[in-house]
Design brief:
With about 230 residues, the protein is of the alpha+beta class. Helices cover about 40% and strands about 15% of the residues. The protein binds flavin mononucleotide.
Length: about 230
């Protein structure tokens, strides 16, 4: 076991305890802990061990500045310009699961389905990073497609589980791919670096209603086939 392996809970416990948190305390993650969890994520597998992820983490004044810029764009109605394409509309069973997910979240937030203003306010919370003290932007080369984005996804879940094991809460955020130019400018990134998605993280504020949200999963029969002849 090396110096960064400090198990605080079993892997299975981390898998089941991780959940998306959408309200954080104004308490920063110590730098050493932050380095540990990112080092653990770094052990994720990837195509030919290319480790195609490139992660930038904003804290402090930079995080505040990015929040203000994202909010400014949202308030101005600036169309999003993601680097990577996203499915425009979920259909069939996927749509059903999306609706269930929204119902669970808005139910806890006491926002009715027809409450457009309430929903807009809730959407804006994304761009406030749910008050998280840190926000990571997971990037990769813009020439990479879906197969390489898989590696970034594997890295992301490794990161979120490593955080869970350290008592750090997180929320993966596709919404933060909407204005990648802001991220490139903030970090002085080359134009070829694209933002795949964000992850905000910090410590769960248990007073925030959204944090009571619990999502379910469909049964294995719906997503896995085991066959031996
Ligand atoms: C790639 C990705 C992007 C996501 N984007 C957002 C987002 O922009 N805003 C948000 O509130 N939740 C976002 N989520 C969180 C999902 O809604 C959440 O993972 C899902 O409902 C399952 O709930 P759980 O994470 O609590 O298990 C995202 C999750 C993933 C994996």
């Amino acid at each position: 076991m090396n110096a960064i392996s400090k198990p605080t809970m079993s892997l299975v416990d981390a898998i089941f305890q991780r959940r998306s948190v959408r309200g954080f305390l104004p308490k920063t993650v110590p730098e050493e802990t932050m380095r540990d969890v990112f080092e653990q994520a770094q052990q994720a597998p990837s195509n030919c061990n290319t480790q195609p992820w490139y992660t930038v983490v904003a804290s402090g004044d930079l995080r505040d500045s990015l929040r203000d810029q994202f909010i400014g764009r949202a308030m101005a109605g600036t169309p999003s310009e993601p680097d990577f394409s996203y499915v425009s509309k979920f259909e069939g069973v996927y749509r059903g699961r999306q609706v269930d997910c929204a119902a669970a979240l808005y139910g806890e937030m006491e926002i009715a389905r027809d409450d457009k203003a309430g929903r807009s306010r809730a959407a804006l919370r994304n761009f406030e990073f749910f008050d998280a003290p840190h926000v990571a932007f997971l990037c990769m080369d813009r020439s990479f497609g879906a197969t390489i984005a898989v590696d970034v996804g594997i890295y992301a879940q490794t990161l979120m589980l490593a955080m869970t094991a350290q008592g750090i809460s997180s929320c993966a955020m596709g919404s933060l791919r909407s204005h990648p130019d802001l991220v490139r400018t903030a970090f002085g990134l080359e134009e070829n670096i694209g933002v795949v998605f964000g992850i905000c993280f910090g410590y769960d504020d248990s007073e925030v209603k959204a944090n009571n949200t619990r999502t379910s999963r469909v049964s294995l029969d719906e997503t896995v086939v085991f066959k031996d002849h």
